[in-house]
Amino acid sequence: MKLLKKRGIRREKHRLSKSMFSRKAVRESFETIAVKHGSYSAAAVILVIVIAVVINLICGQLPSSLRQVDISSNKIYEISDTSRKLLKNLEYEIEITAITESDSMDERLETFLDKYTGLSDKVTLETVDPVLHPSVLTEYNTEADTLIIECQETGLSAQVAFSDILVESASYYSTGSGTLSSFDGEGQLTAAINQVIGQETKKLYYLTDHGETELPDSITSLMQKGGITTEGWSLLMNSEIPEDCDILLLNGPTADISKAEFKTLKQYIKNGGSVVILLSEQGPESGYLTKLMKSYGIQQQKGYIADMERCYQGNYYSVFPNVTATGDLLSGLDTGMVLMVNSRGFSLEESSEEIELSTLLETSANSYAVTESGETQGTFELAARAVYTAESDSEEDADGVTTGNLIVYGSSSMIDESITGAFTGLDNQTLFMNSITAALGEEDNLSIEAKSLDIQYNMVQYGGYISVMLIFIVPILVLIIGFVFWIRRRRV
Q1: How deeply is 60 buried, as exposed, middle or buried, from its count of CB atoms within 10 A (0-12, 13-18, 19+)?
Q2: Whether pLDDT at 125 is above 70
C-alpha cells in the first residue's frame, strides 16, 4: 500500500509538472491581465524613447536662436526687439571675429554669441586662436579676448573687449579680486553693429554754470551705445547754441538761468531744437527756468510731491508714478516701475495748434504738493513733454515744418546712480533714454542696458499673515488632503 501511494504521488507530480510546462499553459500565462499591462507599458516606454530621439534629432537641426531657451533668472541671453529689428533689417554683411584661445571663452558669452548671430544670415561668427595665429593680433592691432566687428561695404570696424561684456564688480579694482557684476553682450554688440553700418552719430550738449549735476557714467555709456556723443556747454560764455547740437540737456540745475539764456533756449526750441530738463530738489520754484517751461504749457507746482498710494515702503516722497507715456517711449520697459525721489510736480495747459502736450509720468489721485505753508491734493505730472510745431521758411526743412521738443522731469533722481544702481529692476534709465531718442526724432533706442549678474532673491517683506500661511497653514492643508486620499484608497 505504501509503495502504491508513493508511485501515485510521483505520477501526480509528473502530471502537474508536465501540464505546467505545456505549450498551452505557457501561452495562457502570456494572456494574463498582468502580462498584457506589462506589455503595453513596455511598448509605451519604447514609443516615448523613440519620439524623444526623433524630436532631439529635429531640434538639433534648428538654428540656435530657436533651440536655446533662456531660463536664467537674469535673462542674460534674452535679446530685445530693438536688436532683433536691427539684425532683421541689415543691408550689409557683418563679420564678427572672436580672438581668443580655444576652449577658453566664457560659456555665457559663447552661448550668447551663438544665439545672437543666429538671428541674421548676414552676420557670421569666426573664432581665431591668437596662440596658433599670433599675426592676428598685429593685423587688427588688438589684444586677445576681443571681438572684432567689421563691415566690408562701409569699410568700418569696431572692437569690443570681453571685459566690456563680462564686467567685473567694483571690488575687483580695489582688492584685486571680485566677481562679475553684469553682462553687456547685447548692448555692446548692437552698438558696434550700428556703428559699423555707418549710422549717423548725434551730439548732446549739457549746460553748465547753474550748479548742474554731472551726468552718471551709466547714462554716458548708454548714450555712447546709441551713437550719441556728449560735451559740456556754457551759455554764459557763449551766446549761442552750437550748430551741431542735436539735443540740449539741463541736469539738476540748482540756480536759475539768466534772462538771456531764457530767450536763447526758447528760440532754440522754436527753431526745431530739443531741450531736456531734469529739475533739482534744491532748484528754484520761480524765475526764468519755470518761465521757459510755462511758455510751452508746463506749469511747475510749488513744493514737493508726496503720494500716499504709490510710494516706497511708506516713504511718501519716494514715488512710483504711473507711466503714462505712449508709443516708442514705452519700448524696452520691462517692469513699468519708475522711482522718483523728492520730485517737483507739474500741471499741463490745454494743447494748442502749435504746442501738443502729453504726460510721461503721473501720480495717483491721493497725492499732495507739500510746501512749508500747506498741502494741495490732486493728481500731478512728474514728467511731461511739449512738442512745438510751426511752419518753417528754412530750406533745411524739406516738409516746410519745424518741430521742437521740451521734455521735463520733476527730479534728477530719475538717472541718479544711487537709485538706479540700488534698484536694478527699475525702468528709469530706459524711459529716460527713450525720451532722448524721441527728442532726437529717432525711432529706436539702441542704448541697451547691461544685465545684472547678481543673484536675485524672491523676498516677501513684512510678510505677517502671508508668512504664517506659507510656512504653517499650506503645508498642514497638503498633509490633510493627502491623508484623506490615502484613507479612501485603502477602503477601496
Answers
A1: exposed
A2: yes
